[in-house]
Write a structure and sequence with these properties.
Number of domains of chain B: 2
Shape of chain B: globular
Number of domains of chain A: 1
Distance between the termini of chain A: 22 Å
Helix content of chain B: 55-70%
Radius of gyration of chain A: 17 Å
Largest sheet of chain A: none
Order of helices and strands of chain A: HHHHHHH
Structural class of chain B: mainly alpha
Strand content of chain A: under 5%
Oligomer: heterodimer
Largest sheet of chain B: none
Strand content of chain B: under 5%
Distance between the termini of chain B: 34 Å
Chain lengths: ~150, ~140
């Protein structure tokens, strides 16, 4: 257990977290909006384009921000997911359906929701964390699947 | 115009944060979820670091500002109910998250890396969300 903590690259992890926190506060402070990424992506499909320009701009910034970090620091791209095609599709459907149904994901509930001290977001965050830990345990350690 | 600039800046910071903390790496995220295997606590420190800034930030804004700096009002989620949809949705999301190691933010950010698998995952995610929207 203690070894696990020794292997964390603390400076980049804490810097990255701070940037995410700053991003969420900035969007809320100026635009009054919650930086919930699934909500933004799914709103694009549900409401008219003129209401969604800021969401498109944010999402383009999200993609560019990651690329810019790699470009400026020379850090290598992370690997692609190592998942078979059927599981990749099933997982995508589950993430999309689930976050739409639960009204939020790791960013909306896990960062902005917790920062607002919303009981709803706390319950959602503990539930998806618990579900994900249980799913990985069952798949990897009980069924021996390589996911 | 200021609103769009803030949206862009906020997106850039979020994307840079995900890349810096290696949260766009599905292996690292699955390493965090593998609590009973070879556990990697990095995600916990990412969330902790984000919340150390976001909690005081949001609390100060909510206490001392009735409106945001460049918009008419704070757009807060209307629902306060802890109901079946919230719980079941979170359970389904957690299952998908564990299988691939992507939640929506990193999946969209990782589109820039140009991997075909990421496009397939994001397309499936949008189909899943649309299926739920149509069902409502």
């Amino acid at each position: 257990m203690f070894e696990a903590f020794q292997n964390v690259p603390y400076s980049s992890v804490l810097l990255g977290g701070a940037l995410i926190g700053l991003s969420s506060v900035l969007l809320f402070a100026f635009n009054g909006r919650i930086a919930g990424i699934c909500g933004m992506a799914f709103s694009l499909m549900a409401t008219s384009l003129d209401k969604n320009i800021w969401r498109i701009v944010f999402l383009m910034g999200l993609v560019s921000g990651s690329l810019l970090y790699h470009y400026l620091t020379g850090a290598a791209y992370p690997p692609a997911p190592d998942t078979s095609l059927p599981l990749l599709i099933v997982a995508g459907l589950l993430v999309g359906y689930g976050t739409s149904m639960g009204n939020g994901c790791t960013s909306g509930h896990g960062i902005s929701g917790l920062a607002r001290l919303s009981p709803r977001s706390l319950v959602a965050t503990l539930t998806f964390m618990g579900s994900a830990i249980a799913t990985l345990y069952i798949a990897k350690h009980l069924l021996g699947a390589t996911i | 115009m200021l609103k769009l600039f803030i949206a862009l800046l906020s997106g850039l910071l979020f994307g840079a944060g995900l890349a810096a903390s290696d949260m766009n790496n599905p292996e690292r995220v699955q390493g965090f979820l593998d609590l009973f295997g070879n556990w990697d606590p990095a995600l916990m420190f990412v969330m902790g670091s984000a919340l150390i800034i976001a909690i005081p930030g949001f609390q100060i804004l909510m206490r001392y500002r009735s409106t945001p700096f460049s918009a008419k009002r704070f757009y807060l989620p209307l629902s306060k109910a802890i109901d079946k949809d919230l719980i079941l949705g979170a359970i389904l999301f957690g299952m998908g998250w564990a299988i691939v190691g992507y939640c929506p933010g990193p999946a969209i950010a990782a589109l820039g890396y140009g991997y075909g698998d990421v496009f397939i995952f994001v397309a499936a995610m949008l189909v899943g969300a649309k299926a739920h929207q149509l069902q409502k």
